[in-house]
Amino acid sequence: MSFRIGSGVDFHQLVVGRELWLGGIHIPAEKGALGHSDADVLLHAICDAMLGALALGDIGTHFPDTSAEFKGIDSKILLERSMALVREEGYRVVNVDSTLCLEKPKIKPYVPQMQDTIATILDLTAKDVSVKATTTEKMGFVGREEGLVAYATVLLERIS
Ligand SMILES: [Zn+2]
């Protein structure tokens, strides 16, 4: 058996007047994440972890934020495309672990829906997709609600 592991991290600013998308889910909030796409920080970190596991570069290489093709794009499409690259390389995803860092809103009620959404795209069950969330105890840019961060780790297994 051949395994590869990858890690990903992503940051976005939080601003008034943008929708907040996390883990493929729209979450009602005062502020949303600023970005070229829908700025789904969690899905971006997972994409980067998948690409990183195979040393395929990063999300910016494959889906440049200078491209009109990706303006306002649903990040679930970026995750699907990252999954296609994993398959092309002969791998499958074994499991995902991730952590969101943001002050508010509370994420817990949305986690099961995020797990289902991510699992469907990655050919997994919700049990294989961990989504955790933490505040930074009011410290730093996350604590000041200026931005949010996501970290992800992904394990891949060779299947062909
Ligand atoms: Zn991003």
Give the number of helices: 5
Query: Which strand order does the major sheet show?
Result: 4-1-7-5-6
What is the gyration radius calculated from CA atoms? 15 Å
Estimated share of beta-strand residues:
25-35%
What is the CATH topology classification name? 60s Ribosomal Protein L30, Chain: A
Low-confidence stretches: none
Top CATH class:
Alpha Beta
Q: CATH homologous superfamily? A: 2-C-methyl-D-erythritol 2,4-cyclodiphosphate synthase
Helical residue percent band: 25-40%
**CATH architecture level-2 label:** 2-Layer Sandwich
Assembly category: single chain
Topology pattern, helix = H, strand = E: EEEEHHHEHEHE
- By secondary-structure content and strand pairing, the structural class works out as alpha+beta
Shape: globular
Q: Largest sheet, described in full?
A: 5 strands, mixed
Overall mean pLDDT score? 96
Overview of this structure, please?
By secondary structure, this protein is of the alpha+beta class. The chain has one domain: 60s Ribosomal Protein L30, Chain: A (2-Layer Sandwich). Helix content is 29%, strand content 32%. It is built from five helices and seven strands. It has helices at residues 41-53, 59-62, 75-88, 111-122, 140-143, and strands spanning 3-16, 20-22, 25-27, 31-33, 91-101, 129-134, 147-158. A five-stranded mixed beta sheet has the order 4-1-7-5-6. A two-stranded antiparallel sheet has the order 2-3. Helix 4 links the parallel strand 5 and strand 6 (129-134). Helix 1 packs parallel to helix 3 (75-88). 41% of the residues are buried. The mean pLDDT is 96. Bound molecules: zinc ion. Zinc ion binds next to strand 1 and helix 1.
